[in-house]
Design a protein that fits this description.
Blueprint (H helix, E strand, L loop, with lengths): L13 E3 L11 E3 L14 H8 L6 E3 L1 H9 L10 E3 L6 E6 L6 E10 L7 E7 L2 E5 L17 E2 L2 E2 L2 E6 L14 H16 L5 E5 L8 H11 L3 E2 L10 H4 L2 E2 L6 E2 L6 H6 L9 E2 L2 E2 L1 E8 L1 H4 L5 E2 L1 E3 L4 E5 L6 H11 L3 E4 L8 H8 L10 H18 L5 H11 L7 H29 L9 H11 L31 H6 L1 H4 L4 H11 L2 H6 L3 H9 L13 E4 L22 E2 L11 E3 L7 E3 L1 E4 L9 E4 L5 H9 L2 H13 L3 E2 L1 E3 L5 H11 L16 H13 L18
Parallel strand pairs: 1-2, 2-3, 3-4, 8-11, 11-22, 12-15, 12-18, 13-14, 13-15, 18-21, 19-23, 24-26
Antiparallel strand pairs: 5-6, 6-7, 7-8, 9-10, 16-17, 20-21, 25-30, 26-29, 27-28
The protein binds a DNA duplex through strand 18.
Length: 716
DNA sequence: GCGATCAGGT
DNA sequence: CACACCTGATCGC
């Protein structure tokens, strides 16, 4: 919950997401999204009175937020005081004090926040510097780097302060499976249940809040079943959502609610009252999207966990994970950061302790932090035929998002010229302390910082290797959620690699799945499994509690519930982390059926880090893309595989992995597949690596003496 | 009667 | 703990 007071230090004349107390005197209001905890005071009589006596006071928000807000009669009085600003369109706003006539100009840009429909971040630029207020956000790794308006020219803007959504800024939420992974898990569960008979229905136990629409749309699109909701008038002008929800209760997917909906469910009744259809009783399962619940699991879990005879938990998050937050902040690298939220048990100090090192004001360990990066940069430059430092950044920035129109950057230019100069000066100033000891010029400073921190993990938490044969995790990079700079991986899923503006937010999954995929895998399990195989590589990290195992197999539900949570141990996805054939052995297991999507590793002997798992029989666009840059073998493998190997009955045992393998696997988890091997590099020695990780975990500085493949670790 | 706040629920 | 609400009780205006 936001405990942001409403005002940023730099621009106290505006109030954001808080409308009570001191905020009543603001010259302009901003609403990042339509969640109640960001709307405190928004309908209070005091503010209403203020509006009535003013011609100037406006509330600025995104068009979708405006629509959602005005749907509620309680906020109708705002109608003539709301200004919808288009996302990613810098807008000049004059802040006029109506009593003194005093005026201050400020430029604001709305950036997509990926939290719920209409959610945005606000980027303020003016005399007191550039300030980013994130509101609530969920941005996958690398998404900040794809936001052109966070950049000026080829580098990230000089941002004075970030007011940050720190909801999950706690190592226990180190990794949260990407939106796509979670969605796919739910999709396959819903698919397998609803396909049993038409009387098998699913109740999505969602909280009363915007943010699940993305789920509804994707389920509806994939399964052709609309989602029953209590209300849909707020979407009347959003056909993309409207089409997929319904108030007709005779559907197999429900997201309706009732004050005591859990009681309903226990009585085999849907919140809307349905218990049977045509005299036939309904068979209902409930799926409860949760994040915190998963954060608390000690062991790694699937993105779907069965919690009872007919109840499931599905991992689902509106907020960025710990590692996503760190990735975001370390890319932005502001001078200051202020948490908007105190995470669970945390104190402000604790959060600040985590975040400050990612800010520019934090100088300690500066020197060693940059060293390996510089080396990497040269390596990368050579191999990618880049010719200068700016190109490095440029290449990265643009190649990861080739479909983003350049025009927007152009548009932002005129208004941000002054800002850009400002940024220049500040960056130079801020980098001087390490310049002396490195050979890098400031233009790449932010970029390098970002790279580094993308993975600098304190890999911590549990070391928990998957002891259960069961819990073999799927996570294979979901391009969207993790690989920002590794252009190809992102390109694979270009559509959802796009900055999550609201439209894209809804389309990404549909686009993710190529039509060919369906053809190749008519069965539901296969479709889901194949998608999940391309999910987040970060899930590989041992430090995560929430694994991104997205085994659609776990969703092979049976009416009797005999294949529940326990029997999920029999259903496995073998994935990227099973990169070494020796890491697992397969053997049949009498009685229990295990569905496995078999993956093959793209062989690149000299370069383990560049290896890439491909699912046999995978025939999706991203696989194709990967092949473009990968070896030819890869293509062959894929094709050969398509022929017959789709499902194999095996059991996977995963306890043969050595700690050393764990570490190596970790190091590759977010590496850039596309960066060729450093010519003179040698494979990391396990002991060296272990030492490195120990130091990293302890927060010690690390001085790399020579380039090794791990360096690419920083170059995600 | 309305609101703010808190307790208790999911 | 609280994602982001909801309901209900109490208190003050």
């Amino acid at each position: 919950m936001s405990r942001f007071g409403g005002r940023v230090r730099e621009y106290p004349a505006v109030s954001i997401d808080r409308f009570d107390r001191d905020n009543l005197r603001a010259r302009a209001y901003f609403l990042s999204h339509c969640h109640k905890d960001h709307m405190k005071g928004l309908r209070a009589p005091a503010l209403k009175r203020r509006l009535e006596g003013s011609l100037k006071v406006k509330l600025y928000c995104s068009p979708v937020t405006k629509e959602l807000l005005l749907t509620s009669w309680k906020y109708k009085f705002w109608e003539n005081h709301i200004v919808a600003l288009e996302v990613e369109t810098p807008t000049q706003i004059s802040l006029v004090d109506e009593t003194s006539g005093e005026k201050e100009d400020i430029e604001v840009t709305l950036l997509p926040a990926g939290h719920c429909p209409g959610s945005v971040m606000f980027l303020f630029e003016g005399e007191n510097g550039t300030v980013l207020y994130t509101g609530d956000f969920r941005l996958a790794k690398g998404e900040a780097a794809r936001m052109e308006l966070l950049h000026s020219g080829t580098r990230v803007k000089d941002i004075q302060s970030v007011y940050l959504d720190t909801t999950f800024c706690d190592p226990k939420f180190y990794h949260i499976p990407s939106r796509e992974e979670c969605l796919n898990g739910i999709l396959e569960l819903v698919r397998s249940w609803t396909s049993l008979t038409r009387y098998h229905v699913v109740w999505l136990n969602c909280k009363a809040a915007y943010g699940y629409e993305y789920l509804f749309i994707n389920l509806s699109e994939e399964l052709g079943i609309k989602v029953h909701v209590n209300k849909l008038d707020m979407f009347k002008n959003m056909p993309e959502i409207l089409y997929h929800v319904t108030t007709d209760r005779r559907t197999q997917i429900h997201a309706c609610r009732h004050p005591r909906d859990d009681d309903c469910f226990r009585g085999n009744r849907l919140p809307c009252g349905m218990t049977c259809q045509n005299g036939t009783p309904l068979h209902i399962i409930s799926i409860k999207p949760s994040t915190m619940w998963f954060g608390e699991r000690i062991k790694k879990t699937n993105v779907i966990v069965r919690t009872g005879e007919s109840t499931y938990r599905a991992c689902f998050s509106f907020h960025s994970s710990y590692s996503e937050i760190k990735d975001f902040l370390s890319y932005i690298r502001p001078v200051n950061v202020y948490p908007n939220v105190l995470p669970v048990g945390g104190t402000e100090d604790k959060v600040t302790e985590i975040l400050k090192p990612l800010c520019r004001s934090y100088r300690r360990n500066m020197e060693p932090r940059y060293r390996p990066l510089g080396t990497l940069k040269r390596v990368h430059k050579r191999d990618s035929s880049d010719t200068d430092e700016d190109d490095l950044f440029d290449t990265e920035l643009t190649s990861t998002r080739p479909k983003i129109p350049k025009q927007q950057r152009e548009e932002s230019r005129p208004s941000s010229t002054g800002q850009s100069e400002n940024a220049e000066g500040n960056i130079t100033e801020s980098t001087e302390s390490y310049k002396a000891t490195t050979t890098y010029t400031s233009p790449t400073a932010d970029f390098m910082d970002c790279e580094e921190s993308n993975d600098d993990d304190d890999d911590d938490e549990e070391e928990e290797s998957e002891k259960n044969a069961v819990q073999v995790l799927s996570p294979e990079p979901d391009a969207t959620s993790t690989s920002n700079f590794n252009g190809v991986t992102s390109d694979q899923q270009e559509s959802n690699a796009d900055v999550p503006r609201w439209d894209a937010f809804f389309k990404c999954n549909k686009l993710e799945e190529s039509p060919g995929n369906e053809d190749t895998f008519p069965s539901s399990a296969d479709a889901g499994g194949s998608q999940s195989l391309f999910s987040d590589s970060d899930g590989v990290s041992d430090s995560t509690h929430i694994s991104s195992q997205n085994s659609s197999q776990s969703t092979h539900v049976s009416e009797q519930g005999s294949q529940g949570w326990d029997s999920q141990t029999d259903t496995v996805l073998i994935s990227s982390q099973e990169r070494n054939a020796l890491d697992f052995s397969c053997f049949g297991k009498g009685g229990s059926r295990t569905v496995v999507s078999v993956l093959q590793e793209t062989a690149r002997d000299s370069q383990p880090d560049n290896s890439r798992w491909k699912p046999v029989g995978q025939n999706r666009s991203c696989a194709d893309d990967a092949c473009d840059l990968g070896s030819k073998d890869c293509e062959k493998d894929a094709e050969a595989g398509t022929a017959d190997v789709q499902e194999v009955l095996v059991e996977v045992r995963d306890n043969s992995r050595t700690p050393d393998q764990e570490l190596r696997r970790d190091s590759q988890s977010s590496s850039d597949f596309e960066i060729p091997l450093t010519p003179d590099a040698e494979a990391p020695r396990p002991d060296k690596l272990h030492c490195l990780y120990t130091k990293l975990a302890a927060g010690e500085s690390i001085l790399m003496r020579k380039t090794s493949p791990e360096d690419r670790y920083y170059l995600t």
